[in-house]
Predict the 3D structure of the following.
Amino acid sequence: MSRNPEKFYVTTPIYYVNDIPHIGHAYTTIAADILARYNRFSGRKVFFLTGTDEHGQKVQKAAEQRSLSPKEHADKMVVNFKEMWQRLNISNNAFIRTTDEGHKARVRELLSSLWGKGLIEKRSYTGWYCVPDERFWTEKDLVNGKCPDCGRDVEQIEEQNYFFLMSRYHDALIKHIEKNPSYVQPDTRRNEVLGFLKYQPLGDLCISRPKKRLPWGIPLPFDEEFVTYVWFDALVNYYSGPQYLASADTAWWPADVHIIGKDILTTHAVYWSTMLMALGLPLPGTIFAHGWWTIEGRKMSKSLGNVVDPADVVRAFGERGVDTFRYFLFREIPFGHDGDFSKKALEIRNNKELANDLGNLISRTFTMTSKYFSGLVPQAEIEPEMKTLAHSIPEKVELHLKSLQFQKALEEIWNLVSYTNNYIQSNEPWTLAKSPEMHGRLAQVIYSSLEAIKLLAAYLYPFMPSWSEALWKALGYTDALTKNSLGNLIKTPLPAGRKLEEFKTLLFPIASYAETAHDVDVVAGYAFVGKKEERKKKVEEKPAAKPKIEQPINEGLIGIEDFAKVKLRTAKVLLAEPVKGSNKLIRLEVDLGDEKRQIVAGIGKSYSPEELIGKTVVIVANLKPAKLMGVESNGMLLAATDAEGTLSALTTEKEVKPGASIK
Ligand code: MSP
């Protein structure tokens, strides 16, 4: 992945400290985190840098409004980013702030170097000034000759400023991009930059602002009346950061990957590249510009009030919320494309892929290990075909992650999830368990499934680190997953005889779209802000219908009002296990869409618990709680029994959402 295969240096943009972190910031940062974790796990030395951009007019203004100094304001705001990255499991090695002394000193050093080389010139510069906004605009910024920000009159002023002689690097930059296809990625962005460079002259870059107009910045080392233009200051972070925030034993520059959004491609591909050329410093390996998220089909903006706070999404999906969010962002769209974030899309991926595919695999395998092998990993070898598939995945994932194709990497990994689910289904361990002579085969099926699950913990780790670590523990390992290297972990099979631990926290709760609201409601009782209450109110406000019903004329027949008293609903089986001391009772945890419940069903002679997991059954939902063999049951599973005693649980003919009512 790296040009020096031993080390890997990845960055995110440094975010405007004035902003409140949203899904866009989270997207870039999680992408960098996935690469950082993957490379560490693959045995490389990693430096992952993120941080905040703290100088400039906007920060100065916001601070004035709060009667704080710009630095005091930034000190308060930066906490939002630091806390968000912790919450999202971001493993950055350092956090840079452009107000750090270490950074400021490097910016001044680089400016002095360029000044010494004669690559910075003072020139007079004519532009348009908006007095109330205290902002300087170029001719092309104006809207109908007025300030593009406030619409007021602007006045033409002439100002002295310093210019970096960027135009000198025009040809060299084109050549570099043409010679190094991976320098600007994806290809569409590379073509965009080349198109821009080839068909117009490249100007010089104004890199200063007069201090009297904007004092909040790094003073130029050769003229203290001016401060450094924020973009020049900010871009230097990639170079300055490792110099004072990393241990000195590794020369981190150049970065392997700068991950950015498509909106800041020019500043990186053109300004930063030419700055480095002028300084005689090596260029980074790749500048990758990802696409933008729209929200429910609309542009995300404060004025529309649709800015997605990652913390809300995470909260809504409960204990596994961070993993769900991280998984969704990178499974949903190819990195580099624009995408739409909708709660519906999030719900579909969560329910189908995480709760169902992955959850059922874990739930069944752990349950069967417990039932057939007393919770101990059986002695057997992994099925050769499964081994071939499972061991071929890392090479493909490496290739995809090298080109930042996170979605393709996840698809590869998911092949193992689907394969193992089908493997269990077709080998029917519950049937094998009935014949003692099939014990060896049963051990192999369970062992192979457990080994696949172990490999999934490793493969999914960069994407869902906290889930993977929890799974690792549940598999009975006592060290942290990351104490092992990916290579070793693939080579070393799961040791037989180890006791498995509790697995329930590894399951993803099912989210269901409520018909009366636009929001996802989650079984575990989490809800996107406010909506659940609104829905409840709506239901309560509706006057209860009073059905006009004839009196029953025959004994034994009931009227519809009696039948209406029985609430039948569909329920999805999330978990199933035998009730201790009974050969008939099975304890089920079921999902009713708006809640999760425990029920006890007397079907143990006809069904094994693992056969039931994932089935949509029908239950009486408003039965008074009862205790069966000491276990509380909150409802009754319906099953048909014929004269021969064959028992069959009722399910629905078509796939319906959990909690659907039956009338
Ligand atoms: N401070 C500069 C970067 C300087 S880097 C030397 C900056 N900061 S920012 O806070 O505006 O950056 C935001 C990052 O979030 C950018 O990469 C941008 O593309 C990304 N996003 C902002 N809104 C977004 C979406 N709606 N969707 C995806 N990413 C988006 O620019």
